[in-house]
Amino acid sequence: MVQDTLLDRRQFCALGTAVLGLGGCAASADGVVPYSAGVDRPKTAAPAGATDCHMHFFDKRVATVPGAPVLHPDALAPDYRAYQRRIGTQRCVLVTPSAYGTNNQVMVEGMAAMGAAVSRGVAVLRADVSDAELRRLHTLGVRGVRFNLVQAGAVTIDQARLLSPRLADMGWHIQFHLLGERLPDAYELLGGLPSRIVFDHMGRIPLAEGTSSAGYQVLRRLIDKGNTWVKLSGPYLSSTQAPQYPNASALAKALAKAAPERMVWGSDWPHATEKTKPNDAVIFDLLADWAPEASVRRRILVDNPAKVYDFPAP
After folding, report:
1. Is residue 97 part of a domain?
2. What Gene3D superfamilies does the record point to (predicted)?
3. How many CA atoms lie within 13 A of 298 on its CB side?
4. Which residue range(s) make up the domain with 83?
């Protein structure tokens, strides 16, 4: 299991002290961030109100579902604030990890710890969730429901059809983690959903075919309908060409050029799928390659997230 192969927070910080000669994770001025390689800051400055639209918290006090495919040691608000100080982002969107099934406790408590004005949440819910529970979660800052169909188990794509009208009435979106190869078969369902749609990790388009793939063409058609957004995140999920991921970067550039008004960005911290953690400064700087114009990056980092996640004006 991933959990068995990762350094926990204390081991990671001790490594930073012993090997890098730094003062441990508590000394955030040194640039040490749990579950992130390197200590350098990005070369690209984050604009005011910059939003990380995809990150997770983990808490060992909360039980995980049996057979959870992706586990991780504790990754909590103090650790993530160290990330924000290093990278320069100010707002965040917490996504309930697949490890917890439909238990959104860690995400909800994480939003409270980060602060209502600067955090939003994406829950995992079944279609039979009560109206009262949706209203409660809305009050707490949740603005979407995730359907993880890669690390599948808690929900199915058919439940999205049932839940989408209720979410549309609340201004919420449905977030899909779906392999790009499945997009053509799912187009009829996805195209008929009345709620907004957000795709994780560049739609998980197969990089061997890239923009010529059937999945990319479907993703573009959904974007052009006007209610679909894509997260420019997780290049390492499809590419092994670290640290610049040129094949994933080619896809990200194409998406950002085609529809900058439909793109948001996410760090995927603490990179739960990755045994070797990436350098988050490098990950953030990739956006400057994907969207070279500062005005476009501001749109991706500030304006689009404010619309999708209902953040107040910065």
Report:
1. yes
2. Metal-dependent hydrolases
3. 6
4. 38-309
